[in-house]
Amino acid sequence: MNTQLLLIQVFNGLVNGAFYALLSLGLAVIFGMLRIVNFMHGALYMLGAFAAFALGQLLGLGFWPSLILAPLLVGLLGVVLERGLLSRLYGLEPSYNLLLTFGLTLLTQDLVKQVMLSRFAVSSAPYSPPEVLSGVVNLGFVVFPKYRLFVIALSLVVCLLTWFVIEKTRVGAIIRASTENPVVTRAFGINVSLWVTGVFAVGAALAGLAGVLAAPIYSVEPYMGAELIITTFAVVVIGGMGSIMGSVVTGFAVGVLAAVGAAVYPPIANTLVFILMALVLLVRPSGLFGLPEGAR
Predict the structure, then answer these.
(1) Is 68 helix (H, G, I), strand (E, B) or coil?
(2) For 58-94, what is each residue's pLDDT tens digit?
(3) How many CA atoms lie within 13 A of 161 on its CB side?
(4) pTM value?
(5) What is the C-alpha to C-alpha distance for residues 109 and 224, in angstroms, rounded to an integer?
(6) Fewest C-beta in 10 Å: which of 43, 128, 145, 273?
């Protein structure tokens, strides 16, 4: 493989890694506070893309308004899901949450499929990036699409901002306290239930944001999150369940590794991340950045 092709694969891997990072970050935020493995995260990602498409078709909104509104709508849906359904399962076996979110995923995918077919007469739809981000940029060592560079940059900013808020601010301190000892946190007059709902909404909004960013690259279709979510779960496990920085670093690293691996040896492309997950778990069961179970 020549150097230019390798660099192109690295940048393509960073684009995929941007989506892995945003999705796994949302999963890590939700799991870190609620200990819920949200199997519906891929459907929320798809809903972000679909919301951007629908806002454009029905209201004529462009990419930039949709980039803000679509994640907010998905976050609002997250509030409804957490308050209306998931909150009723707290204290039960984790399998109940898994089954519920899996069932909601199937329901959401079929519902969006029917809406796209009946309202828009398409099963898959392209979504154009803004004019200012069309074309390519010559970086000197490689020519790369402007929009994909924007995806990488925005994902990094959002991921680092989320990490900063959770790790370095009073808001993050309340979230961590609510996670580690909700009883004592309530004794200080903090409404833990309200914070739980807010955290779930933020995690859902991050998935929605990833979906909006993905729409111009992969197009909008009801099952676009189905395969991606499996890899995202692997990323979360490799980075460490509940680890914010682990999710971000591992998301980008896995994206690059998978892209380069696919170019070097294509047959291993779909299994490389799972081989890596198995190796990491053999050496460090808590993940690369996760704390051992007894230390939590």
Answers:
(1) helix
(2) 999 999 999 999 999 999 999 999 999 988 888 788 7
(3) 9
(4) 0.92
(5) 9
(6) 128
Residues belonging to the chain? 296
The tokens 């493995």 sit on which residue?
A: 37
Residue the block writes with tokens 């984790």: 94
Q: Are 27 and 247 in contact (CB under 8 A)?
A: yes
Range of the domain at 130: 3-295
* Average pLDDT of the residues in 26-53: 88
State both tokens at 198. 């807010």
Number of domains into which the chain is organized: 1
The string of pLDDT tens digits covering residues 8-26 is 888 889 999 999 999 998 8
Phi-psi region of 120 (alpha: psi -120 to 50; beta: other; left: phi over 0): alpha
Q: What's the CATH number where 188 sits?
A: 1.10.3470
Instruction: Give the residue among 79, 30, 68 at the shortest CA–CA distance from 208.
Output: 68
Long-range own/partner contacts, residues 158-164 (CB < 8 A, 24 or more apart):
158/22, 158/206, 158/209, 159/21, 159/22, 159/25, 159/248, 159/251, 160/248, 162/25, 162/29, 162/202, 162/206, 162/244, 163/244, 163/245, 163/248
Tell which residue, 229, 190, 193, 181, has the closest CA to residue 47: 229
Which residue intervals of the chain are DSSP H helices? 3-34, 41-59, 63-84, 94-119, 146-168, 170-180, 182-187, 192-218, 226-239, 244-264, 272-283
Provide the greatest CA pair distance for the chain.
62
Q: How many CB atoms lie within 10 A of CB 266?
A: 9
